[in-house]
Design brief:
With 450 residues, the chain is α/β, with parallel strands linked by helices.
């Protein structure tokens, strides 16, 4: 379904400036961007008066774990997509560590079919690498909906792991597209986990899964990419050491990302919030956080993501070290980053570049991520004038909690629009949760990647 909508009197967030104006979407695509306004309403379109609101491209989250198939009690493609829409996210890329893991064409076709019936936003999926599935990886090259190959170089979650050099060489040498890697060195991890087995304080998590574990794997993945002339994307960068090294060594083949939580939290927050912010790789230290911001601003880091990985509070309640690693975040990422912007940490245009244009460029999503005539009509209208405090009860994620509970955020999406169709909205002064307008499967498409 492709919609027609006219947005008047908005602050348009363009690539390098914010201007007042109108924007028209016709048949699902941006038809006119009118700086200064002046567009007249037509009979066949929805009219939105956006006075006081900022219009951004729909955010793209290229790193989520929606848990379907396998653990729908944590999240499924419908609930995850609803949560994404509530946060102004109009497209997501889902990771392969499911039950069963998405490691072949059949499992991917099943996920794509499910998303077509359940999601309200655009969607794509990674295929998971194993030590012996190169033929499966090759079988999905160029397939609609498949965004790339995911390699877990270190143990994190589930049973996907490829760490032996001969298997990594085989994958880099014999596949195309983009490889996204979770970069932690397995041998060092196992050594460190044994050494830290007696520690039950959560501060030990960042000591155990230390910077050196991540740095070893990042350098190894980069060498493989360069040796085989293969596109590489390093997911969830966490350390100053890696970010500074990539600033001098990433070249044209390598891109990387940072999570909102690694830009927001440090060791003090881990101490305060406990297992709610337990994840792999861990939240590190103040100097790491500040360097990640620096390297995001200078272009070393290409995009901002969430690694939305929900677990129930019941599962988390067992405490460290037995609590599962991962946290929800897809519905708070855009307001969180816009709050950083309003607090002077960056500009609103930076947020749009990092969360909209950046992911589209990394994964070759054509006609997405910018307010440009001819691009897809994926949009979000946000309110930057009002700050509201989020609680667990305000969330759409099936696990029903957020690590940002109690935090005052601005930039809440008042409208989220997919192909010109409103899929989620909030009323001024109404429930912070808002309402989902679209029915499952009625909006959103499987993504294509160049």
């Amino acid at each position: 379904m492709q919609g027609n909508v006219l947005i008047q009197n908005a602050s348009l967030v363009l690539a390098n400036r914010v201007v007042e104006g109108d924007l028209r979407v016709a048949n699902g695509s941006i038809q006119t961007v009118a700086q200064g306004g002046g567009l007249e309403s037509k009979n066949n379109e929805l009219l939105i008066d956006a006075t006081g609101l900022h219009l951004l491209p729909g955010a793209i989250d290229p790193h989520v774990h929606f848990r379907e198939p396998g653990h729908p009690e944590k999240e499924d493609l419908e609930s995850g997509s609803r949560a994404a829409a509530a946060g102004g996210v109009t497209a997501f890329l889902d990771m392969p560590n499911n039950v069963p893991n998405a490691t072949n064409r059949v499992t991917l076709e099943e996920k794509i079919d499910l998303a077509g019936k359940k999601a309200v936003s655009h969607h794509g999926f990674f295929i998971g690498a194993t030590k012996d599935n190169v033929s499966d990886l090759q079988s999905v090259e160029g397939m609609d909906g498949v965004c790339g190959i995911k390699i877990f170089m270190g143990s994190s979650t589930g049973d996907l792991l490829v760490h032996e050099q001969k298997h990594l060489e085989d994958i880099f040498a014999n596949t195309g597209g983009i490889i996204a890697t979770h970069a932690e060195d397995e041998d060092r991890l196992q050594q460190r986990i044994a050494e830290f087995g007696h520690r039950t304080d959560i501060a030990s998590h960042a000591e155990c899964r230390d910077v050196e574990s991540a740095f070893l794997a990042t350098k190894r993945a980069a060498a493989l990419a360069n040796d085989h002339n293969h596109r590489l994307h390093i997911v969830h960068l966490t350390s100053a050491t890696e970010a500074d090294w990539l600033n001098n060594n990433k070249g044209d083949l390598i891109t990387t990302e940072v999570c909102t939580q690694h830009l927001t939290y440090d060791q003090d927050d881990v101490e305060e919030l406990g297992v709610r912010v337990l994840m792999n790789p861990p939240i590190r230290y103040t100097e790491d956080k500040e360097t990640l911001w620096k390297r995001l601003k200078d272009g070393t880091i290409d995009c901002v993501v969430t690694d939305h990985a929900p677990h129930t509070l019941e599962a988390k309640s067992v405490g460290y070290p037995n609590a599962p690693a991962g946290m929800p975040g897809v519905e708070t990422s855009l307001p969180l980053m816009l709050t950083h912007a309003m607090n002077g940490k960056c500009r609103i245009t930076d947020v749009a570049n990092w969360m909209c244009a950046g992911p589209a460029k990394v994964y070759g999503m054509q006609n997405k991520g910018s307010l440009i005539e001819g691009y897809d009509g994926d949009l979000t209208l946000v309110d930057l004038k009002i700050r509201r405090t989020i609680t667990d009860a305000d969330t759409w994620t099936r696990v029903g909690w957020t690590p940002y509970a109690g935090m005052e955020l601005t930039g809440w999406p008042m409208y989220t629009i997919v192909d010109g169709n409103v899929v989620h909205k909030r009323e001024a002064g109404g429930s912070l949760r808002g309402i989902v307008v679209a029915k499952p499967g009625s909006t959103g498409r499987v993504l294509k990647f160049s």
